[in-house]
Specification:
This protein is an all-alpha fold. The protein is about 80% helix and about 0% strand. The chain contains 9 helices and no strands. It has helices at about 20-45, 50-95, 95-110, 115-125, 130-140, 150-165, 170-175, 180-200, 205-235.
């Protein structure tokens, strides 16, 4: 059986435009690590299970809102910066089309294309103003002006996945099981699973990605647990 070349298959590459996957992954990981560490810190301080639930819930709500707003602002600002640079490039193409064509040809020559051929292609591109704009933006800025991530998709993904991640270590307490170590164990399992899922998009070994996330989250939880234990409830009063 002959193997079909990748270039002839549709969607043989994953979507790396960054619309929702990056904020979703970042939100889930941040939610898990934040609330695992938060619960470890207050639990290590010896507070009551009710206080652990209150603290974890407050961390979930505040963190999810912060993540959503932060992602929206970040992506919106990045898109506005790209739009400003595209407008600048459009003005340059209108005012100095020959110089811009030479600049494009020089970039291709630097990559190994013969100068005569590079100039022919640059001149052909210049005859189509919109395509010329797209090509120049891709070459000079490294972005596709027609394929920018949605700030709303980023914000909603980050908000939802942070909430899900932050909820995981709280589940034992919400179900009436008030063991701090059980909550941390459930959170650690969530970190491992999340890391293993991410490996599906990165081609890393699932166990390696899962262990990496578990280790990072464990270090954060250990640090806050130690601080909570040192301070303690009595010291904080």
């Amino acid at each position: 059986m002959t193997d079909t070349p990748a270039a002839l298959r549709e969607a043989h590459h994953a979507d790396v435009s960054g619309g929702w996957l990056r904020p979703a992954v970042f939100g889930a990981m941040d939610g898990l690590v934040t609330n695992i560490a938060l619960i470890a810190g207050v639990g290590g301080g010896g507070v009551s299970p009710r206080t652990v639930v209150l603290t974890g819930t407050a961390g979930l709500v505040a963190g999810a809102i912060s993540m959503g707003l932060g992602e929206y602002t970040s992506v919106r600002s990045a898109n506005e910066q790209v739009a400003a640079e595209v407008a600048k490039e459009r003005r340059e193409l209108e005012r100095h089309p020959e110089a811009e064509a030479r600049e494009l040809a020089d970039a291709w020559v630097a990559r190994g294309l013969p100068r005569d051929l590079a100039m022919q292609v640059a001149e052909a591109v210049r005859r189509n103003p919109e395509e010329a704009l797209r090509v120049h933006v891709r070459e000079e800025l490294g972005v596709d002006p027609d394929d920018q991530p949605s700030p709303w998709a980023a914000a909603i993904s980050s908000f939802l996945f942070f909430s899900v991640g932050a909820l995981v270590p709280l589940l034992p307490y919400l179900l009436g099981l008030t063991s701090l170590w059980l909550a941390l164990g459930v959170g650690g399992f969530g970190l491992f699973v999340a890391g293993a899922v991410v490996a599906r998009f990165t081609n890393r070994p699932w166990w390696s990605s899962g262990l990496r996330q578990l280790l990072l989250g464990g270090l954060a939880a250990a640090a806050t647990y130690a601080i909570g234990t040192l301070i303690g409830v009595q010291s904080a009063l």
